[in-house]
Amino acid sequence: MQYILLIYLLIAFGIFIVPGWFKKHVGVMLALVQAAFFVFFYSKISEVANGNSISTMLYWIPQLGLNLEFSLTGLSLAFALLITGIGALVFLYASAYMKGYEGTDKFYFYLFLFGGAMLGLVLSGNLIQLFIFWELTSFLSFLLISFFHKKEEPRKAAFQSLFVTAFGGLLLLSGIVLLGSVVGSYSVADWFVGSEMIKSSGLYLPGLILILAGAFTKSAQFPFHFWLPGAMQAPTPVSAYLHSATMVKAGVFLLALLSPVLGGTTEWTYIITLVGVITMFLGAYFSITQTDLKAILAYTTISALGILVLLIGIDTKLSIKAAMLFLFVHAFYKAALFMVAGLIDKKTGTKELAKLGGLYRFMPITFVISVLALLSMAGLPPMLGFLGKELIYEAKVQSPGIASLVLILGVGGNTLMVAVSMYFMFKVFLGKQGAYPKIPNEKGWFFLLGPAVLALLSLLFGLSPAALGNSIVQPALSTIRKEMIDVELKLWHGFNDVFLLSLLTVFLGMGIFIIALTKKQFLIKWRRINSQFFTIKFTDLFVQFLGGFLNFSARNTKRVQHGYHRFYILTVILFSSAFLWFQVYVTRNWVLDSHFTLTPFYISGLVAIIVCSTIYATISQSRISTIIGMGVTGYGISLIYLYYSAVDLAITQILVETLIVVMFVLVLQRLPRFAILSSRLTRVRDFIIALSFGSVMAILALKALHVEFNHPVSDLMVNNSFLYAHGKNVVNVILVDFRALDTLGEVTVLVIAAMGVFVLLKTKKA
Amino acid sequence: MNSIILQLAAKYVRFLLIFFAFVALLRGHNYPGGGFIGGLLATLAIVYYSYAFDWRSVQKKLFMKPQGYVAVGLLMILLSFSPSLIQDETLMKGIWVSIPFGLLGQLKLGTPLLFDLGVFMTVIGVTLLFFFTLTKRR
């Protein structure tokens, strides 16, 4: 399975080397690749049908418990089929949609890579690995949303979605690590085994909340839902693929994957159900007052994601079955509708609801496709959506705990969904001809193929649901519930409570729709009420929060990072001398057994010269004399090295001193006249600090004499120098062989310093 | 500076100085010297020459920019690691080969020499970069 991902990666990079004359076929080619993988996954259905899984494992960093584990289960197969199947259709659509845009190579690259990343996510058998793919999809989503990066809106929206989903991803990671520490492994298989251990540990609740936060941000659950409508700035194929069919369902996938591990507790049920039900209702509620085609679809997507999350939260056999079915229901109709919306936008030049109308005259095929998809969205027979809705109602009726709330909001949400579907259909396709900028046509069958296939699937599976139920829903369900479950799906469920609820929903929905259509003031008033009641705009809140946070951290950083070089040095020296003095104080009972001698006289004389020249350098009023004073100090020290037979050191010191003097002379010409600018107090302060640091270093040097090693390293070096490194000069052997890594580090520092000097002096002042 | 004596001296002495720098580099293995010292010596030779003439004429004689020296030096250091990698040894382990020269004995070559050469080149490049950027007038 790792090879599939590898192929994805290779093909994605291969896009860039496609020759010019073949470029216009790239989209179709990629669609074919996706279709081939779809067939591959489809052929695996029988192998995973009984709750089995196909797993492979590669060792990656086994010491950290990180291995690349891939496992194809019923659940991941269902997602893989969605990713490759809808992927193929979306690429077909994109090859028509992206014609004429700049940077289509990049677009296909991101989109195809996304397909691979998403497959990697659903095939992961290791949670750390899953997290990596998870973040990869967030990142690619960011790049795709900001595809039209020359406009400000897409950039903002992309940043927002990245911030929300990547933040959620980090929470997810901490959750994984937290619970992983309980089990001692990040492998999903180990988590299944250690499920009871996790649930009984004290880390369960914090871990659960963190993981849920990750899933909720990804799947645009309340209160993180606001990034999804913003993400509609992306090109429409992206909205159809990432933001309705696949990526936003990663959160749902994660919940489904972990429900055998973490599920079954009251916390799990209540948190997820509550968040899901709120999201479901709010999404539907806001969708009806939108004026932009894609915005309507975005909010209904939020609602649908809410339903999926809610169903997983209810956590019964029936609800999971409904969830798995609805996953497909929604993917079919929503991807189709997005593609239709993109087509309308392309052909008419607008996606404002107010400007559209009467499109059935120009786009009859599109009209039929949309009617099918919208019927499915409204949950009317004979579409698959009807089946999905019936199952959902059935699951909701049985939902433990807060069934009444779930049911009321569920009926409310679905009612609005019916209304919005009808409204969408009438406003866009029926009625008077709208005032669109362009007279549309239906040319380009690549535009229509994708949505047509999806709409037809909605219809066919609605008529004979058993095909979908047995082959895909059943294995997925068996994976999640860890037992064999027979799935029987029928369109007609008989005349029962659930059917009554459906009828009620349809009638209420029709009622709202008729009012909205006949009374023009109705929706406008509704919008006004919304804007009065829901004054908190999450987007603004997000921007404010981010701005405040940036200011806050900028203020705090400025305290430490003030930008004055002298104060940085001051800080470093102050702290290190304080610590050293502390250490000296701790070991104060140490006695200096000094055998100070003044012989040989020339060394003590040299020391005297060094001291004198140093003092002279500090008090001198001329730069030249200071440099000379420092030079004398340096040469003096190198002479001392020489006396103690550190020849290499002495030579290096002499050379460096010479170079420094030469360099100073060069700089000297450029400096302004010497002047004392600092106040007396500052100089006294600096004097004290310098003295304190110098004296502590001196004490340390004296103390170092008394440290006794049992086996000095130098002996080892001296003994082995010629033996192993064939060199008689130990210093050099240490530099280039024994301790070559240190030398490499020094060379690196040198080069970096050179780059710094080069950049600083080359940059002209603005 | 425009001293004929200095210029004439510099013309010939520079070869001597550069040669000496190489000697320092090579003898570093057994006697005081080495890449760092050799590099500094070579730089001093170049700086000395530049004092006699001017910087521009030095730059012409240098074959490439100081950055080039840095790059070549770093590349040599990188290359010196590759034999140990290929032989699946610890990284940076010195690998030696000896080339027999008949009566003259044998020449022992090892990756530490390449490493030292890399240090030599890098030091020249870095110090020259310091000088060039400091002397260049805006």
Question: What distinguishing features does this structure have?
Answer:
heterodimer; A: 766 residues; two-stranded antiparallel sheet; elongated; B: 138 residues; 69% helix
3D architecture notes:
The complex is a heterodimer of chains A (766) and B (138). With 766 residues, chain A is mostly helical. Chain A folds into 5 domains: 1-262, no CATH class; 268-518, no CATH class; 521-561; 570-712, no CATH class; 713-766, no CATH class. Helix content of chain A is 74%, strand content 2%. Chain A has 32 helices and 2 strands. Chain A has helices at 2-14, 26-43, 45-48, 74-97, 104-123, 127-145, 152-183, 188-193, 195-200, 204-218, 227-230, 236-245, 250-262, 266-287, 293-314, 317-348, 364-378, 384-397, 403-429, 445-463, 466-481, 497-518, 520-533, 538-560, 565-586, 601-619, 623-643, 647-668, 680-704, 713-725, 730-738, 740-762; strands spanning 54-61, 66-72. A two-stranded antiparallel sheet of chain A has the order 1-2. In chain A, a hairpin with a 4-residue loop joins strand 1 and strand 2 (66-72). In chain A, helix 2 (26-43) packs antiparallel against helix 4 (74-97). Chain A is elongated and about 115 Å long. Chain B has 138 residues and is mostly helical. Chain B has one domain (4-135). Helices cover 69% and strands 7% of the residues of chain B. Chain B is built from 5 helices and 2 strands, in the order H-H-H-H-E-E-H. Chain B has a two-stranded antiparallel sheet with strand order 1-2. In chain B, helix 2 packs across helix 3 (55-61) and helix 4 (66-86) runs antiparallel to helix 5. The model of chain B has no long low-confidence stretch (mean pLDDT 81). The A-B interface holds A 647-648, 651-652, 655-656, 658-659, 662-663, 666-667, 724-729, 731-733, 735-737, 740-741, 743-744, 747, 750-751, 753-754, 757-758, 761-762, 764 and B 28-37, 40-41, 43-44, 47, 67, 70, 73-74, 77, 92, 94, 96, 108, 110, 112-113, 115-116, 118-119, 122-123, 125-127, 129-131, 133-136, 138.
